[in-house]
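User: I'm writing a short report section on ligand binding and want a predicted complex to refer to. Could you take this sequence and 5'-O-[(L-methionyl)-sulphamoyl]adenosine and write out the structure as tokens? A short remark afterwards would be nice.
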Amino acid sequence: MSRFYVTTPIYYVNAEPHLGHAYTTIVGDALTRWHRLLGDDVKYLTGTDEHGLKIQQAADDAGKTPQQFTDEIAPKFADAWERLDIANDDFIRTTEPRHKAAVAELLQRCYDAGDIELDTYSGKYCVGCELYYTDDELVEVDGVAECCPIHKRPVETLEEENYFFRLSRFEDRLLDWYAAHPGAMKPDNRANEAIGLIKGGLRDFSISRTSLEWGIPLPWDPDHVTYVWFDALTNYLAATGFGDPEQDYTDWWPVDYHLIGKDIVRQHCVYWPAMLMSAGVELPKGWGIGGWLLVDGEKMAKSGGNVVNPLDLIDTVGVDGFRYYVLAETPYGSDGDFSYEGLVGKYNSDLANNLGNLAARVATVVAKKCDGTGPAPRADSPLAAAAATAYADTVRGWDDVAPSKALDATWSLVRATNAYLESNEPWKAEPGPEVDAVMGDALEALRIVSILAFPAVPRTAQAVWERIGFTSDIAEQRLPEAAAWGAYPGGLTVTKGDPLFPRIKL
Ligand code: MSP
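Assistant: Sure. The structure tokens for the complex follow:
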């Protein structure tokens, strides 16, 4: 059995979970559900990033201690993920002892390797990014000079005696490593951006603060606490037991995919692999870099006042309607524009009119023409080739961390089956072997569709599975065997039930 370990970014707890956070978390959930279907032993990690100036300030504003504040917000993320049917295997908080132990271990290894040194630094710092910027990276916003290119707010000038991580030493090693591992970062256009950052030249970065209390102390100099990104990135190792002498972290490490947004590529694809090289830890096998879901062309952010709460949307389109939309609408890696109209449009076309309609009409015809008992498919059905192509393309889509491609491939079988029914019109024919053959084929296609669609729309997949007569848990199906044409046994009771996706009026 192969192991498959996937992570999301750990989310800052200065804001409540929003659509942008839900996006990456749903991609990770679908990808890991796919790998469970393949029979892999899966570990899916998400969590919360709880240290640093940004959180301390948010706690101050709320009149709470940082610990009280984070203790209140972190569960909101866990709850939101539960309501979105996220099947994470672990949820890490950076305030946990296991995380602190891993950070101390990683820091000590880099320090012992001579890659962390004390120095004085003065620079322009964005608290929103928790990053220093160079002058040429800053932008002017509405006549205000020296603003952060991401947050569009003025940066602060900070001068500190800090420990520095000697990132500049890793330029060639990183380029060599990426050259030897083509395709590790997906998709290609995002990978090229990351390589561009390295080729643009790497500057040492400060990894400690004396002015901050809310963080993890450096093991060799406890007057300093760790810079939030050094702290945060280590969560991925902490969850494998790194830093715990009782555990062998290489049982799960190296990670298969870090799923991240395009705004945190520098930290994940430049800082992190260099830190790991320094510490003598293997590098990740892959990174999946997503674009942003924009609202009216802007990144969603608390400060922008355009925050969309995913939990409000599931009341309208259901959990699966929402999951399907975020996975299928926007090609992974590109920016997408979120709109309510877009969400409902996608729901009506792909879910109500395509999948929902197919399931309903199959059940209706089987009730009328086959006494409610599903017939077996034909081995030489004209749909068998469509099913084989849909499966192969779905596999390729998930392999490429391209959910929209995987789902389009799966839905190609939904469309082919609807077209097959329309050309055969079994509802007009007399009951008999011809109708049985057509309906057996359609049921078999629905069986395969429900398995392939399960990673994206788990509840719907289980519902279709049961309506075509199975009583088992669809999550127990195993690919590729379960996608082979011909396994629908016939003789099962088919039920119609309520519409899976009632049409929504805009
Ligand atoms: N805490 C850091 C990550 C540390 S990982 C070791 C952080 N947190 S965040 O909560 O601000 O953002 C987490 C992720 O959510 C980022 O990858 C970011 O791209 C993503 N999103 C936040 N808003 C988004 C959208 N509007 N659209 C898509 N994803 C965006 O950064």
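A remark for your report: Residues 376 and 490 are 4 Å apart (CA to CA). The longest strand covers residues 116-126.
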